[in-house]
Amino acid sequence: MSAPGAMPGGVGTFLRRIPDPQALSPLYRRLLLWFCLANVATMLISVWLTQDLARRTYGGELDWPLLAQAADQAYIKAGREGLVAWAEQTRREEHFQVRLYENGKDLLEWPVLPPLERHLPQLLNSDSIVLRPVPEVLLVGQKVVGSDGVTRQMVALRGPRPPYARLHLLVWMQIVLSMLAIMVVGWWVARGIARPAAALQQAAQRMAAGDLTARVEGGYLQAQDELGLLAREFNHMAGRIEALVAHERAVLQDVSHELRSPLARLQLILELARQEGAGGAAGHFDRAEHEIARLDLLIGELLALTRMEADLPGMAREPVDLAALAAECIGAAELEAGAHGARLRLEAPQPLEASGNAQLLARALDNLLSNAIKFGGGGEILVSLRRDGDQACLSVRDRGPGVPEAELGKLFRPFFRGTNGARAEGHGLGLAIVQRIARAHGGEVGAGNAADGGLRITLSLPLAGVKGAAAPAA
Fold first, then answer.
1. E strands of 132-229, at which residues?
2. Which tens digit of pLDDT belongs to each residue from 347-364?
């Protein structure tokens, strides 16, 4: 048994399904508003027609004393001719036959109508009387004293209604006008929804046909409802797809170029080995093994570059001590640095934590250290860590020849090696991987030549606990 005052289950379920007004979407509110307006317009038209119908059908009461005074004034001012003109006008407008009597004499001198013959004495002897001898006939008698002091009696007769005022015609008129009001409002609402939907459909069809420049255009982009938001999101999506396809095409062209060279060398090595026979093939096989190792390294870097966009946005995040991470990476790179005559040094005056994936951040720092060791020309490589507002800045600076200013903006493009590329082996993918890792962590990476020589690459990451630190860049 439910508790006293508890709402029945069916009604409670219905009320719970009613949406919160604050959560109603703009499109929902728009449709609800126009639906209400259509019903209000239909209601107003129906009320007006119903009132007119009732007035015509049941004969709304007129102000009989006022009508009698009007008839008396018309007679006083213009005599019988004025009274005739007034009576004809009243017959046309109010559908009444009006007579004016003085001392029992009809001032219009018209024949007595049959409905009046029986009740005329009663109408003339009453100050004010309304009779309905039959439902469709109305008889009125009203005494009036004119401005000339003479007492007269107005007698009015209304017979059956004319055909155009019949009930069924007015009902059909009400139905037609109500449907017309609903159709006009419905057409306006449907037009407001169909036009942006058609623009979205056309843009989608153009994209499906291969036109990646297709966008939704027009005033729909400024709308603040779901359709406007959908149009803006579609354009954003289309721009993103166009940029990704253009990037992938460029990467595919670069990959084709990079793979062509080692494959051509392998083909040449195999041809030389075939010509020299088993006796001189050992050296060629060593060179072939070296080329295969380079291909394997290139393919591995390409896979890593491709996985950045697929894996990083959903990666697990945790606070990462950048000073400890830098010290660990420097320790792992000491052997390679010694082989190139370089020395690694760390400056980290304070511990800084970034929110991210320690393994991927270590990969980015390894790539920066490897790049500095390869192109630094020996000498000291300084790794420094500092705080800049809500950013942690990790810099790797070498003592090499630097990079021409015109090439600084291209360093992070896949497969770009620049004029210094011949100084060391590589495929130009290390810094591109660093940039993608930085952007996936909501940070950025930049490069610049130091004033006293060498190249400085700075990796900026949001500090742990800073709002927006866990959100990857688009």
1. 138-145, 151-158
2. 888 888 888 888 778 888
Q: Domain-by-domain residue ranges, the chain?
A: 64-165, 215-314, 316-419+426-474
CATH topology match: 64-165 vs 316-419+426-474 = no
pLDDT at 472 over 50: no
The rounded distance, in Å, linking the Cα atoms of 369 and 337 is 9
Is 153 in a helix, a strand, or coil? strand
Chain centroid, CA 283 distance in Å = 66
- State the helix-helix crossing angle for 226-276 and 167-208, rounded to 10 degrees: 20
| Cβ neighbours of 456 (radius 10 Å) | 18
Residue numbers annotated as active site: 257
CATH assignment, 64-165: 3.30.450.160
215-314 belongs to which CATH class? mainly alpha
Q: What global pTM score does this model have? A: 0.45
DSSP letters, 225-241, are: SHHHHHHHHHHHHHHHH
Q: How far apart, in whole angstroms, are the C-alpha atoms of residue 394 and residue 386? A: 7
**Domain 316-419+426-474, CATH 3.90.76.10 — does that match?**
no
Most confident of 23-32, 58-67, 369-378: 369-378
What are 36's two structure tokens? 């209400």
The first and second tokens of residue 466, run together, are 């800073």
Chain segment 232-245, per-residue pLDDT in tens: 888 888 888 888 78
Cβ neighbors of 353 (< 8 A, separation 6 or more) are 319, 320, 321, 322, 392, 463, 464, 465
